[in-house]
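Folding follows sequence. Below is one example:
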Amino acid sequence: MKIVCDSLYNGALAAKGLTVIIDVFRAFTCAPLLFSLGIEKLFLIATPEQALELKEKDKDLILVGEVSGIPIKGFDFGNSPSEIMQKDPAFFKGRTVLQRTSSGVQGALLALDVADEVMLGSFALAGSTARYILSKKPETVTLVAMGWALKEIAPEDEWCVRYLSHLLGNGSYDHNQALRAIIFHKTTQRFLSRTEAYFPPEDPLLCLQRDVYDFVLKAVKQGDRVEVHRLKI
């Protein structure tokens, strides 16, 4: 099994084989959390306008996402796992979510045009995703760290790539070293500084939990939509 580690916009465009699009802060920490709270379906949406138009037709849809980290007017939630977690789980039971984000969602949509299979990745999903990949035994695995807005390297995504690669039997991983690099970097300090309410300090605490779920998330094209399938491992 060949493992390719890549980053950002060009990494998503160059994805081959079974691809994992990694967005730790915060899209693909939110996605499995939403499933764990009882949602029935999740769709990845390219633009806020598309999501809002669909909600006009179906008021029961839940919209989750951001543009440049900022919550979108008319959406039910920003891209914040702690915000989602504060809501009563009964709110989510059996409902459908549309998710739009600037990094992870965009990267997954790009990769779907070139990769054989696209999985959503984060620290929370790493263990289950590694087990899934090892069971599939693909010839090529591409791990893509999406960073900030697909343009700027983010250590939490880079270290998650390294962790997942390690779980697949490739290279070493030191979690203390990872946390040191992540916590004191500006991407995390943005949350810890408490200067912007839509970057709550609780989010990194949730996003840096490893191997939380016993399922994987796979993005699949279905007509003009991209649905995320929850697969039990």
